[in-house]
UniProtKB/TrEMBL annotation, chain A:
<dbReference type="InterPro" id="IPR024690">
    <property type="entry name" value="CN_hydtase_beta_dom_C"/>
</dbReference>
<protein>
    <recommendedName>
        <fullName>Nitrile hydratase beta subunit domain-containing protein</fullName>
    </recommendedName>
</protein>
<feature type="domain" description="Nitrile hydratase beta subunit">
    <location>
        <begin position="2"/>
        <end position="88"/>
    </location>
</feature>
<dbReference type="InterPro" id="IPR008990">
    <property type="entry name" value="Elect_transpt_acc-like_dom_sf"/>
</dbReference>
<dbReference type="Pfam" id="PF02211">
    <property type="entry name" value="NHase_beta_C"/>
</dbReference>
TrEMBL record, chain B:
<dbReference type="GO" id="GO:0018822">
    <property type="term" value="F:nitrile hydratase activity"/>
</dbReference>
<dbReference type="InterPro" id="IPR036648">
    <property type="entry name" value="CN_Hdrase_a/SCN_Hdrase_g_sf"/>
</dbReference>
<feature type="domain" description="Nitrile hydratase alpha/Thiocyanate hydrolase gamma">
    <location>
        <begin position="10"/>
        <end position="191"/>
    </location>
</feature>
<protein>
    <recommendedName>
        <fullName>nitrile hydratase</fullName>
        <ecNumber>4.2.1.84</ecNumber>
    </recommendedName>
</protein>
<comment type="similarity">
    <text>Belongs to the nitrile hydratase subunit alpha family.</text>
</comment>
<keyword id="KW-0408">Iron</keyword>
<dbReference type="GO" id="GO:0046914">
    <property type="term" value="F:transition metal ion binding"/>
</dbReference>
<keyword id="KW-0479">Metal-binding</keyword>
<feature type="binding site">
    <location>
        <position position="106"/>
    </location>
    <ligand>
        <name>Fe(3+)</name>
    </ligand>
</feature>
């Protein structure tokens, strides 16, 4: 299966607070980032953590966030490993 | 099973879990002993140091290590049969990397050994993503203002290890002597060499 997001794709994470386990930390909810690279494929932790055997196996991506977007300040970057369904592509504004 | 559990509540809980895992056929006692042995006797920062020293002395190995960390450390006998993926991130004159797991305490155990208690502390986990420059300064690592810092927060099955910069004036050293210079904190990114 081809990866949905190539390296360099601009994405945004989901903004809400799910009523179950998730691997998208609160500090990175609803934030814009850029895909660094596709990583491994893995069962979606949000469902597998509930003991469900039907958790879909998704592509996981390394996604880079600017500190300014996460915290409103700072010049560093944070990279998170995020399942594909956490992400939506951000259309190019040009 | 190892026979040296104390009677603490956590030890009783672990024993009960082991019994259940065996009863349900998830794991055999022998397999569990193998895994524990591999962790206890095989997991030490000397492994990560050996990988780093090889990368410093063999440019082709370094290129493989940075493009596919898992395959490159398997060449040296590490991570055989593991399900995790390894990504090695390189420090340079202008770029510094540091690793964390803000959600729990994920760590490349097989290359770095058991993690230090501060790595699992809420203070480190919450602060290093927010203000890494200040946290690194508290470790005694004062980076130039124009050094680009990247914090790698392991939130899935990838584990990260930092490839530190090779210290100056070490041209004459053997791979073994170089490995002896590499510290655990340098592999995490909270120290330079």
């Amino acid at each position: 299966m081809p990866d949905r997001f190539a390296a360099g794709t601009r994405v945004r994470t989901f903004p809400y607070d799910p009523p179950h386990h998730t691997r998208l930390p609160r500090y990175a909810r609803g934030k814009p980032g850029v895909v660094v690279e596709p990583e491994e494929r893995a069962p979606l932790a949000d469902l597998s953590a509930q003991g469900r055997a039907d958790a879909p196996v998704e592509q996981v991506y390394a996604v880079r966030f600017a500190a300014r977007d996460l915290w409103g300040e700072g010049d560093h970057h944070v990279v998170l490993d995020l399942w594909e369904s956490y992400l939506e592509e951000v259309p190019d504004e040009r | 099973m190892s026979g040296d559990h104390s009677d603490a509540a956590i030890a009783r809980r672990v024993r009960r879990l082991e019994t259940l895992l065996e009863e349900k056929g998830v794991l055999t006692g022998a397999r569990l002993d193998e895994i524990i042995d591999a962790f206890v006797t095989g997991a030490t920062p000397a492994n990560g140091a050996r990988v780093v020293a090889r990368a410093w002395t063999d440019p082709a190995y370094k290129a493989r290590l940075l493009s596919d960390g898992t395959a490159a450390v398997r060449e040296l006998g590490y991570m055989k049969g593991g399900y995790e993926r390894l990504r090695v991130v390189e420090n340079t004159e202008n770029a510094h990397n540091v690793i964390v797991c803000t959600l729990c305490s994920c760590y490349p155990l097989f290359l770095l050994g058991p993690s230090p208690s501060w790595y699992k502390s809420e203070a480190y986990r919450s602060r290093v993503v927010r203000d890494p420059r200040a946290v690194l300064a508290e470790f005694g690592l004062h980076l130039p203002a124009d050094t680009r810092i990247t914090v790698w927060d392991s939130s899935a099955e990838t584990r990260y290890m930092v490839l530190p910069r090779r210290p100056a004036d070490t041209e004459g050293l053997s791979e073994e002597q170089l490995a002896a210079l590499v510290t655990r904190n340098a592999l995490i990114g909270t120290a330079a060499l």
